[in-house]
Amino acid sequence: LAEQLTSQSNGDHIRLVRHHLTHADAQRAPVMARAWASYYLALNQAEPAIERLELAVQQFPELSQLLGDLYLTTGKVENARTSFSNASDFLRERVEKDPQNRAARITFANTLLKLGDLNECRAVLELGLKLDPDGPYKQLLASLFTNRHDAMAQQEGNTVSSLLTQLRIALTYDPTFTPAYERLVSYGEGKVE
Question: pTM for this structure?
Answer without folding.
Answer: 0.79
